[in-house]
């Protein structure tokens, strides 16, 4: 019975662990998808804004080496800004991974505490159950002993009655009944 309880508890714990893993993965996938879509939208907005800026710049530039130098300067500034953006995104991703790790560690610690609490409760309940079983078994032993003594007394009296009844003709008729009582 205890093995059944322990196996059942193990199965339930495994189900909980599996459900938490699936939920965590789903939550992370949804969050990653949202961040990815937001970044794509931001990149689109940035592309549109740069396109408009390029049109304005080229309309004001004159042909010649100065225009080429201005274009190279703008391209370098954009490259630098893109690198800053990429670094910020990488830092945000690293922070998100760290936060997820911390959340997982916290959840694991809480789950461990809850399982210890459950185990303690289970052991307490088992102790109470064991005490109740011992008390039940003691009571059944006493009742069985007392009934056995009473039944033995009845059987002895039935034998004595049968022995005394064997001397008379009317008593001989009661011998089968006393045999049934003894059995």
Overview of this structure, please?
This protein has helices at 2-60, 65-165, 169-172, 175-182. It is mainly α and 183 residues long. Helix 2 runs antiparallel to helix 4 (175-182). The mean pLDDT is 85.
Instruction: Note the gap between the termini.
Output: 37 Å
User: What global shape is seen?
Assistant: rod-shaped
Radius of gyration in whole Å, from Cα? 45 Å
Amount of beta strand? under 5%
Write down how many β-strands occur, each being a DSSP E stretch of 2 or more residues: 0
- Give the class from helix and strand content and strand pairing: mainly alpha
Q: Helix and strand string, N-terminal first?
A: HHHH
Helix content: over 70%
Overall pLDDT confidence? 85
Largest sheet features:
none
- Count of alpha and pi helical runs: 4
Low-confidence stretches: none
